Amino acid sequence: MDKLKIKGGNKLAGQIYISGAKNAALPLICASLLTRERVTLTNMPLLSDIRSMNLLLEQLGTKIDSHDEVIDGNPCKVYSYQTAQPASLVAPYDYVRKMRASYYVLGPLLAREHYVELSLPGGCAIGARPMDIHLSALEQMGASIEIKNGYVIAKAEHGLQGAHLIFNIASVGATCNILMAATLARGTTVIENAAMEPEIGNLAEMLNAMGAKISGINTPILTIEGVKELHGVIHKVIPDRIEAGSYAVAAAITRGKIELINAQAATLQTPLKILAETGVRISEKPHGIIIDAENCVLEGKDIMTDYYPGFPTDLQAQFLTLMLTADGASMVTETIFENRFMHVPELLRMGANINVHGHASAIVRSVPKLYGAQVMATDLRASFALVLAGLVAEGETVVNRVYHLDRGYEKLEHKLRSVGADIVRIKDDQED
Ligand code: UD1
Predict the structure, then answer these.
(1) I need a labelling partner for 109 at 20 to 30 A (CA). Which of 20, 145, 291, 375 fits?
(2) If we measure between CA atoms, which residue out of 139, 191, 182, 138 comes closest to residue 162?
(3) pTM of the full predicted structure?
(4) Where are the beta strands (DSSP E) in 45-161?
(5) Cα-based angle 179, 40, 191 (whole degrees, multiple of 5)
(6) Backbone phi, then psi, for 209, in 5-degree steps?
(7) Which residues contact 429 (CB under 8 A, 6 or more apart)?
(8) For ligand 1, atom 21: residue with the closest CA
(9) Contact in structure between 214 and 208 (CB atoms under 8 Å)
């Protein structure tokens, strides 16, 4: 398995292009299953999660082609998906095991083909992550759901029927899945307490461009009038707000200055507000955001994760790491997932001062220095937190299990090197 070797201490300065959002791209790919026609997605990030999703769709009978393009100055991939007729209605264990988001095939296939078998995703490093909201909503829309041999078997013999749904949690995954399913259901579906993450707005806009009738986009109440069929589309993936937020912290923690090209400040209001409160200078530009922490003395601030537009859980590990270098103490509270402080024991090995209370909160105290170490993380965002710690640690840090990072950060070491970081990838077969 590849590793990243980082020599800490360099102040980062320059520009970083923000890629298309992984969490927008994954449901958009699955939405292509709703039509026989061709769906083209531009500004796609080059990530292993996208490759995993493509493999699953190919297995379901989707024809995929791709080419390179430069969009807004950033080289990226354009993928086209066409599923004239699904070859299989089974999402097998090996695909779902590798990537939970494989469950996004459930809504589209059930709506279009009235049948689907999906390996039930298990828990993961950050918590149990059940699918009860997705399944209960589909049942309320007339589907029969059976769990057998680790698979969800969902049938809707006469198609799905619109329903008035009230989600007990504003789940991102359930909102995307049910939104897609409802586009081809008979009658009207209302989703109350829908998640409002920008990736859902990106999906709803693409579905409308395909002929769906969705109103209430970017609000907690989505209304979907079912249509008979959807057609092809060309659609652009929004910039990745979590990638942008992660590199914003890279600028702040090294007391550097980075322009995040293509980043959208509107999707990062809460994390940018906290950064500004710590003392970082932030300026919005027409095509990005400048994060300037040069000569700043940062002050620790409290963070509590929440549903959008609250502070994203996917930036918690990175901001927690930043607080180690800010004066005073910060209280970090995680409210979305029950096991999301897995980065803390690794940070402690680098000299951090963090006290975790139960599963939900941590007190982070300023330390004069972090020290390089061999570390490994159990999930994607926690891995980035360790990279951030490595960027400021004295000496050398080796981050193991880089495959986590490859799932969600396109060309991570290239982007960081381009702003002055001393970071190299050590290939599995390469002598260190
Ligand atoms: C998505 C993101 C992930 C992000 C998360 C929260 C993708 C591919 N992943 O994950 O990066 O961290 O949103 O912003 O977009 N829950 C239930 N029952 C359900 C569904 C969810 O109890 O049926 C719970 C989960 O266990 C969790 C909370 O609801 O505690 C939020 O989960 P959800 O918003 O569904 O996250 P994901 O869609 O899995």
Answers:
(1) 20
(2) 182
(3) 0.97
(4) 63-71, 74-82, 90-91, 115-119, 144-148, 151-155
(5) 5
(6) -65, -20
(7) none
(8) 171
(9) yes
- Report DSSP state, residue 83: -
Over the stretch 100-126, which tens digit does the pLDDT of each residue have?
A: 899 999 999 999 999 999 998 866 777
Q: Which of 329, 340, 265 is nearest to 305 (CA)?
A: 340
Give the Å distance between the CA of 129 and the centre of ligand 1: 7
- For the question of residue 124 being annotated catalytic, the response is yes
pLDDT band of 76, cuts 50, 70, 90: confident
The token pair at 347 is: 């940070």
| DSSP conformational letter for 124 | B
Tokens of 201: 């707005």
Query: Is the CB of residue 26 below 6 angstroms from any atom belonging to ligand 1?
Result: yes
Q: Which of 30, 76, 124, 176 is catalytic?
A: 124
Backbone dihedral region of 143: left (phi > 0), alpha (psi from -120 to 50 degrees) or beta? beta
pLDDT of residue 122: 66
How far, in Å, CA of 306 to CA of 335, rounded? Answer: 6
Which atom, in ligand 1's list, is nearest to the CA of 170? Answer: 34
Within 10 angstroms of residue 380's Cβ, the number of other Cβ atoms is: 21
169 CB within 6 A, ligand 1: yes
Ligand 1: residue whose CA is nearest its atom 37? 173
What secondary structure letter does DSSP report for 140? H
CB-based burial label for 71 (10 Å; 0-12, 13-18, 19+): middle
Question: Which atom, in ligand 1's list, is nearest to the CA of 136?
Answer: 23
382 lines ligand 1 (CB under 6 A): no
